[in-house]
């Protein structure tokens, strides 16, 4: 139970933070509400922060919060199972692994597109590794094994 609560905390912190940041970028695509200048997007394909804000809000924000419910209730979902690469595990566990890798990809792409590294990048890279580490704890794997 403690390991699941740890994973839920990791996902909750990630989701709430990403929904907050994504919301601010959607509301103000100029980045002013976050104090982020548009000039950092000069080497990226984006003119403003709207699309990154939407991706941040849904992929890194909403998805982890939905996964918290799925980890607690372990619902059956034919669609979710279809995309489950770990057929011996419940899909909620598998999708938590996906979120860990999605966060790593998000941070790496962000660093490449803005051509810079901020301390928050390192923080969230470590957070992603914590999520991936937590999913591999024997107690959690046993809990979500089919």
From TrEMBL:
Recorded superkingdom: Bacteria
Transmembrane annotation, as ranges: 7-29, 49-72, 93-109, 121-140
Keywords: Membrane, Transmembrane, Transmembrane helix
UniProt protein name: Uncharacterized protein
Taxonomy of the source species: Bacteria, Pseudomonadati, Bacteroidota, Flavobacteriia, Flavobacteriales
